[in-house]
Design goal:
Strand content of chain B: under 5%
Number of strands of chain A: 4
Number of helices of chain A: 5
Radius of gyration of chain B: 17 Å
Largest sheet of chain B: none
Strand content of chain A: 15-25%
Helix content of chain A: 25-40%
Number of helices of chain B: 9
Helix content of chain B: over 70%
Distance between the termini of chain A: 59 Å
Number of strands of chain B: 0
Oligomer: heterodimer
Largest sheet of chain A: 4 strands, antiparallel
Distance between the termini of chain B: 54 Å
Shape of chain A: globular
């Protein structure tokens, strides 16, 4: 019996596997690189955001299509903020990364995850208006059937369990 | 790094989470792993991709405990088989290995006018398909299959006998 030995795995599979392995901390660096002095309050969000970025990077090249308006879903941003009370429980960085990545994976499995990125603490404020408050440390873009579902999803975000704040805002495509 | 041995690459992945080392391992073993997944999935590329993805992730997670009692490729195939089985169990209970599964009869009834070996393989029940893939296509001995699947070597031989008979039936019916 002979088989189709010429068949090769789809190219996207390698990228998808790599993305998952990075997100789970099995490959690559998931801890923040401390090339520069980083204020303690930024270490947690950087570690978490790095995990999110790696996870979503993997999902982005995966085979699941990102949900969008064609599927009747609206997109929302979940902006993640943290203050001095964030992670008062002292959960380890790898544990936080796994928790956030797992949450993102569960959303992806329901076609509710569109994107997630870390935000560099570096920021510039332009314009003559009032000084901007401290910005978000990361964000997700999710898809939901409406405001109620978006809020329901946001309430499950692990960032809230660790004392962070999540600002939910619909994306305006008008 | 492309010339590095499997043990060297595995050490780099385990110790340093070295992505370049993993990429070499992936490209060295990924084709066989995927093709095995594809056959175990009955030729379904989407299912094969899920199996292969799960298998690679599980393999890397378990690499620190890999003791080199088997070749890395053999160990990877064992993980593929287990991932395929778990997905099949999640979708529907496996048929008992020593019975003539009803699903095969349904598949026969629905057989198309022309069929090739790969398509006939896809119509075998999972228990038969595993043994055919591992023995006929991957070259494992019955003893190795027994260890991989957690069955007796005699059961592997019996399954192969039944599977071959089923394959001949599937192919023969289409040729007449």
């Amino acid at each position: 019996m002979t088989g189709p030995e010429s068949i090769e795995p789809p190219a996207r599979l390698e990228a998808r596997v790599l993305g998952t392995l990075r997100a789970q901390g099995l490959l690559g660096d998931v801890a923040p690189r401390r090339r520069y002095a980083i204020a303690p309050r930024w270490r947690w969000p950087l570690a978490i955001a790095a995990g999110l970025l790696l996870f979503v990077g993997g999902m982005a090249v995966g085979r699941r299509p990102a949900p969008g308006p064609a599927q009747g879903l609206r997109q929302y941003t979940l902006l993640l903020y943290e203050g001095p009370e964030f992670n008062a429980g002292g959960v380890s960085e790898p544990a936080l990364v796994r928790e956030y990545s797992g949450w993102a994976a569960s959303l992806a499995g329901k076609n509710r995850l569109v994107a997630g990125e870390k935000l560099d603490p570096k920021a510039w404020t332009l314009g003559a208006g009032s000084p901007a408050p401290a910005g978000p440390t990361g964000f997700f873009v999710i898809a939901a059937a409406g405001d109620d579902e978006a809020l329901a999803i946001a309430r499950t975000c692990p960032h809230l369990r660790h004392g962070g704040t999540v600002l939910v805002r619909p994306i305006d495509r008008t | 790094m492309n010339e590095s041995s499997d043990p060297e690459l595995v050490r780099a992945v385990v110790r340093d989470r070295d992505e370049a080392a993993f990429r070499v391992l992936y490209r060295r073993h990924g084709g066989r792993l995927y093709r095995t997944a594809l056959r175990l999935a009955g030729g379904d590329p989407a299912e094969a991709e899920e199996i292969a993805h799960d298998a690679w992730v599980r393999a890397v997670a378990r690499l620190p405990g890999f003791e080199w009692r088997a070749q890395l490729s053999t160990w990877l195939i064992a993980i593929v088989v287990n991932c395929a089985r778990e997905r099949q169990r999640a979708a529907a209970p496996l048929e008992p290995l020593d019975t003539e599964p009803a699903v095969a009869d349904r598949a026969l009834d629905a057989a198309p006018a022309r069929i090739d070996v790969e398509r006939a393989l896809a119509q075998l029940p999972p228990g038969y398909r595993e043994v055919v893939v591992l023995h006929e296509l991957e070259g494992f001995t019955h003893e190795e299959i027994a260890e991989l699947l957690g069955i007796e070597p005699g059961t592997s031989k019996s399954q192969l006998h039944h599977a071959r008979r089923r394959l001949r039936s599937l192919i023969g019916e289409e040729e007449t």
